[in-house]
From TrEMBL:
Protein name (Swiss-Prot/TrEMBL): Zn-dependent hydrolase
UniProt keyword list: Hydrolase
InterPro entries for the chain: Amidase_Cbmase (IPR010158), Bact_exopeptidase_dim_dom (IPR036264), Peptidase_M20 (IPR002933)
Pfam families for the chain: Peptidase_M20 (PF01546)
GO MF annotations, alphabetized: hydrolase activity
PANTHER family assigned to the protein according to its UniProt record, in alphabetical order: ALLANTOATE AMIDOHYDROLASE, ALLANTOATE DEIMINASE-RELATED
Record keyword Hydrolase present: yes
Family: Belongs to the peptidase M20 family.
Domain of life of the source: Bacteria
SUPFAM superfamilies, per the entry: Bacterial exopeptidase dimerisation domain, Zn-dependent exopeptidases
Amino acid sequence: MGSVTPGVTALLDDIADVGRARSGGYRRFAWTTEDLTLRDWFDGQAAARGLEVVEDGNGNRLAVWGTWAGNPGEDALLIGSHLDSVPDGGAYDGPLGVASSFAAVDRLRAGGFEPTRPIVIGNFTDEEGARFGVACLGSRLASGATTPERALALRDDDGTTLAEAMRAQGRDPRAAGPAAWLAGVGQFVELHVEQGRGLVHDDAAVGVATAIWPHGRWRLDFCGEANHAGATPMGDRKDPMLTYAATALAARRLAGDARATFGRLAVAPNGTNAIPSRVTAWLDARAADEGDLERLVDGIVAEARSAAAADGTTVDASAESVTGAVTFDVPLRDRLAALLDAPVLPTGAGHDAGILAASLPTAMLFVRNPTGVSHAPSEHADDADCDAGVDALAAVVRELAGG
Ligand code: GLV
Ligand code: MN
Ligand code: MN
Ligand code: MN
């Protein structure tokens, strides 16, 4: 089926310059100028289609096709995703789901479709947790998976709290927390670029998600003694960088089929010619089941402690966020897989759909990613596959919200 103007790739082209970094990737963090520009773009797309936009107290934006007050039992069909990115992220993780939602509405309307339930396109706030350290903050707050007290006190690297960042953008942080509109939603279907090569192996443009691996983020603070890089013999050092390095190597050894990543470090004082006094390292760990994840993280922390004892340093470990295993609604998943004649597959990546799955029947559609690369500038999906994703999403809306 051909695209209806503008196609999903034209919609992505529209925002191609927002938050573009020198790497070619994107830096689009919650409550920054880039985020606000993307929110305006979202509003513009909604307005161009005559959709009313509402924002909840957490900054989640919802564009409504039909009449919807978000009252309990109203049974809207929620689609959409997020527009924020990881540092130097790709163009598709998040925006593909939002753009495909607008494109699907166009395609359905062009075919004369009239929904029997309200269709709501969501733009969730801070899915990646790139600024305040906890992923899916918008959906966690809306669903009560985290408390406003905890979320609003989170700080970015400059020490700004979420509450301050929201206030700076004219929001009242006292409105953050469980969102009444969630009780007015019957189902959520999030379309997302695949973050892996499952669909390449399946030779399919679109798939349906079965499950999300349990995953989380832990903070490890390694402390030692700052000293001169030239004047301190190697045997006299208390170097927390070496303890961190031993821990990262142990994590690779222990992970096996699970995943352990140290992608973010803060080093103090961060001088080339000074032994650090402190290294803070953030561990992202994921595994196929919760027991494996717990054993992996316990093992990494135990290795960190024994390396610290040997190095004369110390280590403190704390969990920043942990998300349990998610199994998407099986009847909904099976219905969509049969409808689309699409393969089903699990993922190691987290999503707002994984958070909202605890509150309502939720499903995800994945669009093929030829290399599987994601959270990096080279993340990609072919135009034809993006178009197939819009077709699939339109078919799902027709199935779930048709006569
Ligand atoms: C978010 O995309 C995550 O899985 O970390
Ligand atoms: Mn992501
Ligand atoms: Mn995403
Ligand atoms: Mn994600």
